[in-house]
Design goal:
Layout: E1 7-10, H1 19-43, E2 48-55, E3 58-68, E4 73-74, E5 79-82, H2 87-101, H3 129-133, H4 150-156, E6 169-170, H5 174-188, H6 192-201, E7 210-211, E8 220-221, E9 224-225, E10 231-232, H7 242-245, E11 247-250, H8 251-261, H9 269-278, E12 283-285, E13 288-290, E14 295-298, E15 320-321, E16 323-324, E17 334-342, E18 345-352, E19 357-363, H10 369-383
């Protein structure tokens, strides 16, 4: 498939720069995308992509290819892609915002909020909302095949018991985030879509962000394609736990989300404070740290190929013991990121608040998560004037 040339939109500056510096960063941004990301997207025959960036406060947007193949519709600034597990960051921001309002407490047990949990299972009282948002709760990856709704999932957990003491091992859990969504629903008496709208999309004017399965007539929604290039749809199983991975968003909306995540001036104060709360490392493993929703890495621990320096060929946290995070690493060196993967979409987002630099990449075909992450990190390092390697 012939790769369609990039359409680049450069927005007005958010920070004040000398003209020469601004032109230099523009050229560096384009170079980073052309050298690092485009070859990988072409290799995997990605139909369409949205790449949105802040490079030292300056926003850029690159839109490529087609949102749908038949009929062909171009990717634009308002084309919505499924962001998959990046939804967990959205959920964590909602959690942090509701905690600031006093609706919930991070350290309170999930059993205090979620209705219909078995009162006979005392293990539920050992799991806090913070544990659910930081993958140290011991719940599994996905609901069992014969689970079709919330009530059935809750019932299936009646005799649940963690393999390790809560808060001692990191294990990625979609069910944990699904339960966090239930807790927020029950504490606020609102559905997850209503919470998303009230706490995030309305305050940030994110008009193209919604839940997979909702009406798409008011926006352009990309079609996802599987490994063979055939159209595929997100498993309905994920819609049982929408807080874990059911959000779709456009490139223009992800720029707004990243601006709030990095605390740009003019953003709603309550949301900026909520983001700040999500960006505090809670648990530390040998692979990196975990905050609310975000993975946390020392920017100096990413090698020129985009992998973790201390664990070559690894890109993210893995199943391992954890301890409470120390604050030995200066906050100025902390990088926050999150991957996303569903049947026909891949996504990846990085923010580096210290330098007001971030990137979000969304594509509408299955591809290697490792290749997407490492290519994006190499482009990111180039923009930060670190050395990025052409692979």
């Amino acid at each position: 498939m012939k790769w369609i040339k990039a359409f680049l939109v450069i927005f007005s500056t958010i920070l004040v720069f000398p003209v020469i510096a601004m032109h230099s960063e523009r050229a560096n941004t384009i170079k980073a995308i052309q050298r690092q990301l485009l070859p990988v997207l072409k290799r995997y025959q990605i139909p369409g992509a949205a790449i949105v960036i802040y490079n030292h406060g300056q926003p850029y947007a690159f839109y490529y290819g087609n949102a749908t193949i038949k009929p062909k519709t171009k990717v634009t600034s308002d084309t919505s892609f499924e962001v998959a597990s990046i939804s967990k960051v959205f959920t964590s921001v909602i959690l942090a915002e509701e905690a600031q309002k006093g609706t919930v407490r991070l350290t309170s047990p999930m059993s205090y909020y979620i209705k219909n949990l078995s009162s006979k299972n005392t293990n539920f009282a050992k799991v806090s909302l913070e544990d659910l948002a930081s993958h140290v709760n011991g719940f599994g990856q996905m609901p069992a095949p014969k689970i079709y709704n919330r009530n059935e999932l809750i019932k299936s957990l009646a005799y649940w018991k963690p393999h390790h003491a809560v808060g001692t091992w990191w294990k990625y859990s979609n069910i944990g985030f699904g339960l966090l969504g239930y807790a927020l629903d029950d504490a606020t008496h609102l559905s997850y879509p209503a919470l998303l709208k009230r706490d995030i999309t309305i305050p940030l004017n994110m008009k193209d962000t919604s839940i997979v399965g909702s009406d798409c007539t008011s926006q352009s929604c990309a079609q996802g394609y599987g490994w063979t290039g055939l159209a595929v749809n997100t498993t309905k199983k994920l819609l049982i736990i929408p807080a874990a991975g059911s959000i779709r968003a456009s490139g223009s909306d992800m720029l707004k989300f990243m601006a709030a995540a990095m605390g740009f001036s003019g953003e709603p104060k309550l949301l900026v404070h909520a983001f700040n709360l999500t960006e505090e490392p809670i648990y530390q493993s040998k692979y990196g740290a975990q905050a609310l929703g975000w993975e946390v890495h020392n920017i100096n621990n990413i090698n020129k190929y985009g992998y973790l320096k201390n664990k070559p060929k690894y890109i993210t946290l893995r199943y391992s013991p954890v301890k409470e995070a120390s604050h030995a690493i200066p906050k100025a060196e902390l990088m926050f990121d999150k991957t996303g993967s569903v049947a026909g979409f891949r996504s990846y987002m990085i923010i580096y608040p210290e330098q007001k630099t971030g990137i979000a990449v969304m594509v509408n075909r299955a591809m290697s998560r490792t290749r997407l992450v490492t290519a994006t990190r190499r482009a990111f390092l180039m923009m930060l004037n670190h050395q990025g390697e052409q692979v």
